[in-house]
Every structure is written in structure tokens, then in C-alpha cells.
């Protein structure tokens, strides 16, 4: 099977996690800003799409080169073997972006790349009329950074964070792959308690349960590459999915709880949990942060509380941080991981974090405040 140069794209700050996931799947990696490079065939592409919890997309690198004028962009694009990927009836929309490059007019860049590919395919397939583009879609992107052109084919389709279980959400939902990243950064083991005290629509507890059972996050959704009959061997997708299903451990008992002060959010979380097939694995309950207490030890708390971005909300949010500090500080065997854009969090929580990690929730800069517990044997 043909080998490809591949990239898994990721949000700023979690590329290293994507690299770690890929290495755990058996691939050699090269971590860069916003992406991780690796190599693989079509089976590996399916495996990566199915199993990557923290990535956004898996893309085939069709070609990369330097270009500072449109002639160079056209000729080097046309020289690539597009016919190895695109059948005669392929629909191939071209997205574009450019950063700090001489070729900065993105619509023109997209048009040149499209024309170069059309010319190549027209010659190879001996077409006298226009290409029909009535077949499966092959989404392409031309990305230019400091005059370096990267041409890629998206194998994923809708972003990997779209697992398929979210039937409802709150006002400021956390993407599923960011929620998975928070769980992974918490170094939680499935035999320990896990609590999200401000669970909203339940994304963090659901991602924890998927990790706890070793369920592939993409098992209940499809991928763009599965429509490429010219490339995908018959039954390959089914084989990879069946293999993933055998790796899941559905018997392990998990102690995962999600709480929220808003009963409406708890109702949404329970619906999402049911859609994920995890109804018996997570307990959701309407409860304020200040009213929670536990006698359990060695647990993990992962929370994405409101950030109080509006001044009118800031006072109530910082009161929430104070309540968290009062309840969590004495729980010395528990580790706490709290994500917020409020850089004054430690002041109101009442304790300096063991470690802080900068992450981006969409375009918003946030910090993960980490308080490491001392496990009791």
C-alpha cells in the first residue's frame, strides 16, 4: 500500500499531546507548531482518524516547495502527481491561507492552485471538456508561510472534535478534543475517582469515560477518506473499526461524576452521555461547587469554570474560585486541574499552582492551573 507523508493538525499548546498519541500508536513523529508530521498508508490514515483524541484533522501532504510568484506556484503545483489521488470525476475545492509571504492574496493563490491541478488532470485524463467534479469530494488546502507552500488533502472531513455524541451544549462549550487533552494532562488512572464540578454539557466526564474504557473517539462517526473508492481498499474501514472495537475494555468500572449548578445543563449532559453509550459509567447531578464534599482519596478534579470575561460576571466567578479553594485545598491526595482565562485565578483560589500550562480554547488564551496531589497508599 502506498505510503504518504502525513500531518495531524492541532490547537496551539497541545501539539505535544498529539505527538504522544501518535507515538503510542506506533508512529515516528516530528512535532511542529500547530501540527505533527508522521508517515503511513491508508490503513494508518484510518487508524489515526479513529484514535486521535486531541488532534483536529489528518492530512496527506501532496507537496511542499518555496514560491514567491504566481508562475512558480502554478508550475510547481502542476508538476505534482495529482492523478495518484484524484480520479477523473473528483470534486476538489481548494481552501487557502497565507502568512508573512509575498503571495498574500489568498483568493488568487487558491485560483492559481486550482487551475494548475485542472490543467494537470485534463492532460493526464485526456479531457477536451471541463472536469465534471461530480464524484467524491477531496478537500485541498494551500497554506503559505514565509513563502513556503504546503499543499494538503484533508482525509478527515468535519473536525475530529465532532465525535457525534453532543446532542446539546451550553453557552461556552469546550471542544471534545480540548476536553480530552485536559483529561490526558491530568494523568488520571481509571481506577481513581474523577470529578468535574462545573460539567456543563458533560464533555470532560464523557471524554474521561472514553479514555477509561479505551474506546476510540471516532468510532461513531465517518471520515472523508472513506468515500474515496479509488484509494480505499474494500473492507479496510470495517477492518480498522472492528479492530478498534476489540481494544475497548467495557468491563472496567469507572468512578466518574459531573456536577453543575444548572439542572438544565445536567439534563443536556445526560442526553449527551446516553448518545455516547456511557449512561452507566458517569453520574451527573445538579450541585453547587460549595455543596460538594467527599471522603474518597487519590482522585482527580478537572474543571473548566466560567471565565468571567464580562465585568458584570467577574465578581461571581471569582467567588466561585474562592469556594473551590476552600473545598479543594484540604484535599491533599487529590490533584486539581482548572482551566481559566482569568490569570488572577491563584489569588482567589488561595494557593499557587504546582504548574501552569498555556493552552488556547479556540482563539482565547487560557491557563491550566495544576495542583498535584500526594497519593495515599
Automatic annotation (TrEMBL):
Keyword terms of this UniProt record: Methyltransferase, RNA-binding, Transferase
SUPFAM superfamilies named among the record's database cross-references: S-adenosyl-L-methionine-dependent methyltransferases
GO molecular function, one term: methyltransferase activity
Gene3D superfamilies documented for this protein: 3.30.2130.30, Vaccinia Virus protein VP39
Alphabetized InterPro entries for the sequence: DNA_methylase_N6_adenine_CS, RlmKL-like_Mtase, RlmKL-like_Mtase_CS, RlmL_1st, SAM-dependent_MTases_sf, THUMP_dom
GO BP annotations listed: methylation
Keyword Hydrolase listed: no
Domain THUMP: 44-155
Keyword Kinase included in the entry's annotation: no
PANTHER family with a match to the protein in the record: RIBOSOMAL RNA LARGE SUBUNIT METHYLTRANSFERASE K/L (PTHR47313), RIBOSOMAL RNA LARGE SUBUNIT METHYLTRANSFERASE K_L (PTHR47313:SF1)
Listed name of the protein: Class I SAM-dependent RNA methyltransferase
